[in-house]
Amino acid sequence: LWPPPLPQTSVDSSGSSAQTEQLSFAEVMRLIQEGKEVPGVTKLDVQPSNQSPTPSRMTRILKPWETEMSVHRILCERWMVSL
């Protein structure tokens, strides 16, 4: 690849940036499987809001088989079959 990727840096608690090594996919998978933290990845604290979802304000787009012509055709076919 050109240009070569920039080296990853991380900032430790003292505020200085330290060079982190590039990990292979297999190394990242091993860390995840062992429950260890992957260096250079920000850990997010995501919590559920436990609130009801807000109702949609937009009308749903009809699927091809739900269009007026399709519904009309289906109703006509059902009517013809029931005779």
Structure in words:
The protein has 83 residues and is an alpha+beta fold. The chain has a domain at 1-41. Helix content is 29%, strand content 7%. It has 2 helices and 2 strands, in the order ββαα. The chain has a two-stranded antiparallel sheet with strand order 1-2. The longest helix is centred in the last third of the chain and has 15 residues, at 68-82. The protein starts with 8 loop residues before the first strand and ends with a helix. The relative contact order is 0.08. The mean pLDDT is 77.
User: What would you call the shape?
Assistant: elongated
DSSP, total strands: 2
Low-confidence stretches are: none
* Strand-residue proportion: 5-15%
Q: What's the assembly state of these chains?
A: single chain
Gap between N and C termini, in Å?
69 Å
Radius of gyration, in Å, reads 28 Å
Sequence of strands across the biggest β-sheet: 1-2
State the secondary-structure class: alpha+beta
Helix content: 25-40%
The H/E string reads EEHH
In DSSP terms (H or I, runs of 4 or more residues), the helix count works out at 2
Q: Mind summarizing the main beta sheet?
A: 2 strands, antiparallel
> How confident is the prediction overall: mean pLDDT?
77
